[in-house]
Amino acid sequence: MKEKELENIINKYRADPTEIMNMLLDIQEKEKFLPKTALSYLSGKLGLPLTRLYQMATFYEALSLTPSGRNQIHVCTGTACHVRGADGILNKLEQKLSIKPGQVTPDQKFSLKTVNCLGACALGPVLLVNGEYYGHMSALKIDSMLQRSSE
Amino acid sequence: MHRLTSVEELEKIRKITLEEKSKKSSCLTVCLGTGCQAYAGQRVYETLKKEITSHNLTAEIELKATGCRGFCEQGPILVLYPGEICYCRVQPENVPDIIKTTVIENRIIEDLLYQDPVTGQRFIKESEIPFYRNQSRIILGANRFINPQDLGDYLAQGGYRALAKTLEEMTPEQVIAEIEKANLRGRGGGGFPAGLKWETTRRAPAKKKYVIVNADEGDPGAYMDRSLLEGNPHLILEGLSIGAYAIGADEGFIYLRQEYPLPLENLSIAIKQAEEYGLLGTNILGTGFNFSVKIKRGAGAFVSGESSALMSAIEGKIGEPRPKHINTALSGINGKPSNLNNVETWANVPIIIEKGAEWYTHIGNATNKGTKIFSLVGKVNNTGLIEVPMGIPLKKIIFDLGGGIPGGKKFKAVQTGGPSGGCLPQHHLDTPVDFDHLHELGSMMGSGGMIVMDEETCMVDVAKYFMHFLKDESCGKCVSCREGTRKMYEILEAITLGQGKEEDIPLLEELAWVTSNTSLCALGRTASNPVLSTLKYFRDEYEAHIREKRCPAKVCKALIQYTIDQEKCNGCGRCRNLCPQKAIEGEKGSPLTINAQSCIRCGICREACRFEAVIVR
After folding, report:
1. Is A140 within 8 Å of B578 when comparing Cβ atoms?
2. What pTM, to 2 d.p., does this model score?
3. pLDDT tier at B189 (50, 70, 90 boundaries)?
4. How open is the CA angle B356-B357-B360, to the nearest 5 degrees?
5. Which of A118, B96, B357, B458 could serve as A76's disulfide partner, Cβ 3.0–4.6 Å?
6. DSSP letters for A26-72
7. What are chain A's domains?
8. Is residue B342 within 8 Å of B225, Cβ to Cβ?
9. Confidence of residue B2 (pLDDT cuts 50, 70, 90)
10. What's the Cα-to-Cα distance from B297 to each of A19, B60, B571, rounded to whole Å?
């Protein structure tokens, strides 16, 4: 990530150290992960210990220290999705992509994650693929979803 | 737009807005909440826009994208006013016909009307549909008239009138007295009296105070806060401003879940608009009241929704709970008195102020006033958001509003209160839904998730599901919570794998007792509820798993077997083509069989079979 982009993010939040989470999320959104160089830069600029930034990066589910795949699949495992069979969908994806939740395919094409609840419970079981919601999913629909999302 | 500097100016702009809106003879509203967007709602909206322009109807029709209307099952929902003609499951290809037939020729398209799945009866008006008819939508109701990105729509609905009334006519003490009189209890789950909380922070000896909206809606299965924030963001801002005035705070925060992009967008726009119009900022409406609001985002940690953890997160630290020797109402953000309420609680405030506590207390029962929004989801016909008076029986919600269980299956349990709540069985269906009654039965109201489970839901699996959630979300600070949830999960997992032992049940009960009694925050203190409530009401299911190595609901994979009914199978081969294990054997055209050795019980064959020939034993 370029220094200028980081500066823009820092300035967006007036270099206020209490806004650190908003800054980390902006970086994560742009880069799909938190590059080490960006964390060191933030730490120096804001006067926050680097350990604090790493603590946050590892505590929160939405932050990641390793790059994600080009296509991001989130499987909702909220209660409503669970009782409607989210497990079966997750298993099918694990099988299809040969990765576990939290991992990225070797070709960097897909990353698979679970999410506690997307707040789209009436559509359960639901997937979020590259920011798009797929409602009433079933294991049978996975192939066409993968095809569509990787086009 | 210049800043509004008095209440008179607010009323003037409201009048102008209303006049402007009345120039159009009809209004076409399309729900663009998260649910309807997933069903191509955005494309429906774009097509409508095009069709309205191509028919030269822009001068007559106001096209409006609204927030969530709650009936997500039937989305995308489109309603035409006047006439309140409601079309369900509208797709882009239906749009030309809607414009031609209904808008221009004034005729109804029968096929797009809601049809009751049981009686087959069709309904024209949105408010006549049984799902809506049985509700009291005092909070959610405005969503259907409001484009959340347009302050004008909120003003047209009487928005900011309560704030004006507060600032002009009421002292802070009078505001708190009104909230106390209304007996508003915290909708986040605790049910703590909001007025009392406000009073504590108000009296705290400090110059700087904060008010906070808890929008970290972490309970899986609950999404009412999401719908309020994305559908009517100004309502929350107005409630928060009234609270700030009453408490004596000049700064507010909204702690918003990272998983909610649309609420973030709509709230950010709403804050900017309110600042431009002088409804936030300095000298609000010329009354000398100053108040500003900032959004702080979460990043996917359930425990950060706990009050002290949330305040740590706002300070830019890790969102972990801290000991509350001194209540956050007295010592919260930066050690200053901080009043935290949930989204729905704040949403109630403008309504109480405008209509009065007297009116408000007529809704609900003796100790629980007003309405509560629930997300009615899981194995129920009409899934969506419902708003009902407190104290309504569970049965009425699930069967009258929810339309019962799909596919003629039997009801088994209803889970309320999220991971801190419990599962209630059939014989408690007459229970009035309110804070006190649910608590008595070992569950809780929580933030309003209501997950219906049918006979095909395994209660041991449900307990395991929640314990998996809680062990992952425990921050690990307290040993009892960190190790207790992990150990309970391991025992439950063993039971579902058919490795359960007789002594597991008493051990679970003991672990549950220790975890609840020795943890710092509510996550640990209530973590045992899913286990205890399922043990209390569904012990026979645990025993079947342990003693007979049998899962009565046929869910636990280690205890079930897939077979093919030789009578029903015609050998079409669909399941064989889809089986990831190539476990289905036999010749095309004659009944197939499943090789139990290679079958992983993923259930794809059952889903694929069109003849219901795949059986689970």
Report:
1. yes
2. 0.94
3. confident
4. 95
5. A118
6. HHHHHHSS--HHHHHHHHHHHT--HHHHHHHHHH-TT--SSPPPSEE
7. 3-59 (no CATH), 71-149 (3.40.30.10)
8. yes
9. confident
10. 9, 41, 54
Q: Which two tokens stand for residue B535?
A: 């043990």
pLDDT tier for residue B34 given thresholds of 50, 70 and 90: confident
Is B38 in the A-facing interface, judged by CB distances under 8 Å? yes
Least CA distance to A129: which residue of chain B? B38
Helix (H, G, I), strand (E, B) or coil at B614: strand
Please report, as a single letter, which amino acid is at residue B515.
Answer: T
Which helix (H) or strand (E) segment holds residue A74: the answer is strand A71-76
* B457: nearest Cα among B408, B410, B399: B410
Segments in A61-149 forming alpha helices (H): 79-83, 86-97, 142-149
Taking an 8 Å cut-off on Cβ atoms, the answer to whether A121 and B607 are in contact is no
pLDDT tens for A79-101 read: 999 989 999 999 999 999 999 99
Sequence-distant (≥ 6) Cβ neighbours of residue A43 within 8 angstroms: A49, A50, A52, A53
> Given a cut of 90, is residue B73 above it in pLDDT?
no
Contact A83 B453 (CB under 8 A): yes
Question: B518 to chain A, minimum CA–CA distance in Å?
Answer: 23
Residue B262: phi and psi, rounded to 5, are -70, -45
Q: For residues A111, A115, A118 and A123, what is the CA-based torsion angle, rounded to 10 degrees? A: 80
- Per-residue model confidence as pLDDT tens digits over B209-239: 999 999 999 888 899 999 999 999 999 999 9
Asked whether the CA dihedral A139, A143, A148, A149 is positive or negative, the reply is positive
